Amino acid sequence: MGLYPLNGGNQPNKEPHALALREGTQIVDVKEATPLTIDNVEGRTLVNLMGISGRCEEPHLFTKVLPLEVSLDTSRKVEGNGSLLLVSTVSNDSYYGVSRTININADSHYIAVAMAHNITASALRLQIHGMGGGSKFVTADSEGYGEFEPLAVRFKPSDLVATSQVEVQLWIKTASTNAGGSFDAIRVYEISRNEYDAIGSMTPKQIAARYPYTDTLTHVINPYVEVTGMNLCPDFTRFDVHSSKTMQVVSPQETRIVLQTDNQSAYSFDSEHFAVVPGQTYTLSADIEGIGVVMDVYTNVAGQPILDTPQVGRDVRSTTFTVPVGVRSVQVRIIIESGAKAGTRTVKNPMLVVGITPKSYQPQKRSLWAPEAKLASHPVTGADADILYTGDDGSPYVLEKWEKVTLDGNLTYRHVDKGAGFKIFYTETLPPTQKDTAFVTKYDGTILGRKLQGEMLTAADAQVLTDITDPNPNLLVFSVSNAESGWGDMYSPTSEEIKAYFLGWKMFDVSTNGADGNGVYNRTDSKEKGWTPLDSYNGTRYFGATVTVPNVAPSQLINGNYAKHRDIHPYRLQYLKSKPKIVRVETYDTGASLVSGANVVTVGSGVIFREKAAVLTSKTAVAIGDTHSPTKQKIKKAIQVYKGARRDGVWYRSYINPHGLEKFRADISNYDPNETYYITYAAFIPALVATINVKAAANMRGTLTALVDQMGDVNSRLSMVEAQQAMEGIETWVAPTLMNGWKPYADGYQVPRYSIDNNGIVRLEGLMTGGVTAANTTLFYLPKGYRPKGTQLFECTGAGSVENVAIAVRIDVGFDGRVFINQSSTNLHAAYLSISGISFKAEQ
After folding, report:
1. How many domains does the chain have?
2. 222 and 149 in a common domain
3. What is the pTM of this model?
4. I need a labelling partner for 206 at 20 to 30 A (CA). Which of 412, 629, 636, 815 fits?
5. What is the pLDDT of residues 693-726, one digit of tens each?
6. Cβ contacts of residue 466 below 8 Å, gap of 6+?
7. Helical ranges in 696-800 per DSSP H
8. What would the pLDDT profile of 457-489 be if each residue is shown by its tens digit?
9. Are both 210 and 137 inside the same structural domain?
10. Position 726 in a domain
């Protein structure tokens, strides 16, 4: 991280500057406003051999090596919901620990990383131990206390006298009882020889950053670049005013503080948190009229203030500060001091800039680049990486070399064979493959062993990929453990029961294990069948069941005593395509631009585009992504809210009961219940972050400033296909509430719906049936923002009363949003009525 100067003159046609943007937050300084063009982003794939056990949330997955207490520590964590807490129970001066066995290849190279938090032990240790006679081990010990630190060990199985397995061991060293520490985010990756040599001189912290935690087959998914420039301080509409009459927002750059009585207790109004760079110097300034009100900057670490003295206020217009090490986000606070007198204060023109020089007020500029794309590579060598790039037409494209397939209930599987303790299946025909290139992970994130084309599968958790040279081409053949699926050796599952497994269910015999869901189903009379959710297992039993073969995921079906005790993943497959293919990205936002001066640039991944929001309302505020009204995925970073087709800047990030780390929040006065809201956010989905190589074109400043102003307001250049069909950025169709007996026509026809594009053109389409056909019959209403200035008339198609032959039907769209039949002909029949072809410009 740090400061990247991109200095250039004002000459036109200047060669663009190349820049590598890396994960996290960095500052890019330019003399001229300039749009960013993405040069390329390379794919990456990692497979953690620990699977979900590396999350350290299931103590039963580890074996105790010596007596000690092992439990889930929810107060200390790096990933997920907690860490693995080890506590000594005896006072001998020794090592105490747990182990987990993983499969390895004898001639390969590996890196192991664990996050260790020493609480009261002498030390914590990560150890990789070879198995068998004469085996050896390698270790890494902790050095500090009170916080997580990375432990890293690279190893070659041959050096450990290991052939097919090693033990990953976690130790605490202590001489007393009740001493211990926590481990989290354990990962073991197979790496190339060159990579093995390269990391030999790296620190554990550098290795941990190079090899982040994953627990399934993980790619670079939906990368993004978010740019904030001009002014890093959020405007006053993005402060949490608590719906208070004390803080009255006059405009984005001005607010009044109205105190009704003297000597009030100290309290504050806080902005949303925003990213900063540790060690970087910033300057905060504002115009504050009146005493008793100051501005300060607080960290995300235990809410500590940075500006002890001087704060902005009390005749101090600006102050400079340096972000402490370890602080990556802050918030600006307007603080009402204890003892302040009654009266009105005004706060205007808040500015936060990089450097030591205060600047005149400018509104904040925010912009985003984000494509919807999965980018993979060879998990071990990094070879054959998918490449995302910008085409000559300005649109993003991907040179795809790898096929990525989710093996879930949407595919068809065939049971072809069985062996002692396992069943063998093959998938439906896949897009053309290259044999023996598959990487497959199962529901617990562990990788299936690979066999070569023509070899037999002789045990569970193995796979082989065929290509066109095989009699059964382009298939994945793989084996599943009976103990995990619930199918006994004597039982052959039906196609529906196979699908249920890939939806997340285990089969069991109700007559023998109705209380706990354990065991397998091995009957031949097809009686007493039961299914229980795989994710309900707590180490001893399952929770929740159904006696009808399920065809949806457990979360959609099970009630009652269903309780989720672990996270699982669908089976995932990655393989080399027979031929690389260039694919145009259809969903994207490419509006990222740099403004003149310092820009804070954040790089991440896992963006979810324009998800329709469920808004939670209260008397004082509204929220999106609250635990009581969750988004589809947990929110890692709240990016943007859209009201209909346009960006809505009044929402701010909040940390009160979020479904994830953050949520969106706004004052109730800024919410329109008649509008439809959409959100873009970074989600907690398995995704790697890639370096994004960009070009910043340096052209004439005056021309580009106007362009950047437009793009910074998120009037982004978007997918041409979607821009023709829908609102700004993504195809978003809304199904209206049909009236007077009309309902969607069945049998695969398009349901009635409407959309608006970024030019304000509203389009209607779809087929309905069964309603009232009389003149002036209302079909549905369009909301505000989707209505014409005056009533518009359209000719559509409906069913005639004679044998349902199509006839012309007049449909009007009123200025009030009413869509209605406007003809008195008795020839119209309710068999069908189309609204396709209606389009007009929204003007109110």
Report:
1. 6
2. no
3. 0.79
4. 636
5. 998 765 433 333 333 343 333 333 333 233 333 3
6. 433, 435, 453, 472, 473, 474, 475, 477
7. 701-712, 720-725
8. 999 999 999 999 999 999 999 999 999 999 999
9. yes
10. no
